[in-house]
């Protein structure tokens, strides 16, 4: 049965944030809100968490997982970014974008695309997520909480708790968040390729 955390959207309670971060460190799989929609998240090195996300979402090994980072300095530890790409990403973060880039050695092999050796990264513009990332001190390994055969993610914490109570360890509820996933931009080939149009404006990448 999943723990339920009711977290204030503008002033997250430090005690609750610490408890959530501790549970992630202990191997928990959580459902949490972002600036685009709810996501599933676990610790960076949690192989079990990866397999549980794959199972819940019916994903294959070509799926790009996302490292949700606190800031640009943290993001830079996990992906290789040249100057032009740096400027483009810097101008768009924090925000509802996921960027696919070549992974550094800091990224566990199980998270990388098997052929391209790439990974998704993003910096969310969400108070609660940022508080959790600050407390955790490292990225959250994440994937959009979009269930198989459904067109839109769930938006309510209580609904997620009700439906996923048996497959996640904790649900973080800080009110309604959007139904539109991030915009995905692939920079792994050097030029911006729009992979998915979502909550982030694509005009600067066209």
TrEMBL record:
EC number: 2.7.7.87
Key words of the record: Nucleotidyltransferase, Transferase
An example molecular function term from Gene Ontology annotations: L-threonylcarbamoyladenylate synthase
InterPro entries for this protein: DHBP_synth_RibB-like_a/b_dom, Sua5-like_dom, SUA5_domain
Lineage top rank: taxon: Bacteria
Gene3D superfamilies, A to Z: DHBP synthase
Pfam families per record: Sua5_yciO_yrdC
Domain YrdC-like: from-to ranges: 14-200
Name recorded for this polypeptide: L-threonylcarbamoyladenylate synthase
């Amino acid at each position: 049965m999943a723990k339920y955390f009711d977290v204030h959207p503008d002033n997250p309670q430090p005690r609750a944030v610490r408890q959530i971060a501790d549970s992630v460190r202990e191997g928990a799989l959580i459902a949490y809100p972002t600036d685009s929609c709810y996501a599933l998240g676990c610790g960076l090195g949690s192989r079990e968490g990866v397999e549980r996300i794959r199972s819940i979402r019916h994903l294959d090994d070509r799926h790009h997982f996302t490292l949700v980072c606190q800031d640009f300095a943290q993001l830079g530890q996990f992906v290789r970014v040249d100057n032009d790409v740096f400027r483009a990403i810097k101008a768009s973060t924090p925000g509802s974008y996921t960027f696919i880039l070549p992974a550094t050695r800091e990224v566990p092999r199980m998270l990388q695309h098997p052929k391209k050796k790439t990974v998704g990264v993003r910096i969310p513009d969400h108070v609660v997520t940022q508080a959790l990332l600050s407390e955790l001190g490292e990225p959250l390994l994440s994937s959009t909480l979009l269930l198989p055969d459904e067109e839109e993610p769930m938006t309510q914490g209580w609904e997620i708790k009700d439906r996923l109570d048996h497959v996640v360890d904790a649900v973080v509820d800080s009110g309604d968040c959007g139904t539109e996933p991030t915009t995905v931009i692939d920079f792994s080939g050097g030029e911006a390729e729009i992979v998915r149009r979502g909550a982030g404006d694509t005009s600067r990448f066209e």
